[in-house]
């Protein structure tokens, strides 16, 4: 599994194990009889009642759900390696970070629209005058939805907020 992230490995394992569980649960339909409570006797299976079908459907739901999550991560992982860069207004501070102006979960980033989700990682930046020249303030942030603010928030460590000219390795690739 070289080259996979820890989350992708975990979801791949979830797909494998939930598929195995589904196969085992479905394999009970292959049997014609079952061992009876009396030693040496067996009873014919005549039908499967609602409990079996609920049990089987729970296995199928788990397998399908873990497969969907795995495939979604595989599709999104190349995009996730590209840094999401959002221009913000650092004057929109709130208790948890910077309040993002959105329409629903959509943030307008220049001409592009970005769909936000809880736990999204981004680099937020804004232009600032620093040492009598224009310089970018930038910081790594975690995008969260705040029920207190009833808004999307870019949460970050204020100690990490620096001008790009002060960083050894700039966050922004002009």
Describe this structure in words.
By secondary structure, the chain is an alpha+beta fold. The protein is 31% helix and 33% strand. The chain contains 2 helices and 12 strands. The chain has helices at residues 6-27, 50-81; strands at 33-35, 42-44, 85-87, 93-94, 97-100, 102-103, 106-109, 112-115, 120-130, 133-146, 151-155, 162-163. The strands form 3 sheets. Strands 3, 4, 5, 9, 10, 11 and 12 form a 7-stranded mixed beta sheet that branches. Strands 6-7-8 form a 3-stranded antiparallel beta sheet, with no helix packed on it. Strands 1-2 form a two-stranded antiparallel ribbon. Strand 6 (102-103) and strand 7 (106-109) form a beta hairpin.
List keywords for this structure.
174 residues, alpha+beta, three-stranded antiparallel sheet, 2 helices
Taking Cα atoms only, what radius of gyration do you get, to the nearest Å?
A: 26 Å
- Helix tally equals 2
Order of helices and strands: HEEHEEEEEEEEEE
Largest sheet: 7 strands, mixed
Distance between the termini: 35 Å
**Low-confidence residue ranges:** none
Range of strand content:
25-35%
Mean pLDDT: 84
Anisotropy-based shape: elongated
């Amino acid at each position: 599994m070289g080259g996979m992230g820890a989350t992708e490995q975990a979801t791949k394992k979830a797909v494998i194990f939930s598929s195995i569980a589904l196969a085992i649960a479905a394999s009970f339909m292959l049997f014609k009889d079952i061992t009876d409570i009396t030693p040496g006797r067996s009873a014919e299976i005549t039908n499967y009642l609602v409990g079996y079908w609920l049990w089987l459907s729970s296995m199928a739901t788990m397998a399908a759900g873990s497969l969907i999550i795995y495939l979604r991560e595989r599709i999104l992982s190349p995009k996730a390696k590209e840094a999401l860069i959002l221009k913000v207004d650092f004057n929109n501070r709130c208790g948890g970070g910077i309040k993002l102006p959105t329409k629903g979960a959509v943030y307008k980033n220049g001409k592009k629209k970005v769909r936000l989700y809880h736990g999204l990682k981004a680099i937020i930046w804004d232009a600032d005058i620093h040492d009598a020249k224009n310089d970018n303030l930038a910081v790594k942030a975690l995008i969260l939805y705040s029920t207190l603010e009833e808004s999307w928030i870019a949460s970050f460590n204020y100690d990490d907020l620096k001008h790009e000219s002060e960083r050894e390795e700039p966050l922004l690739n002009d």
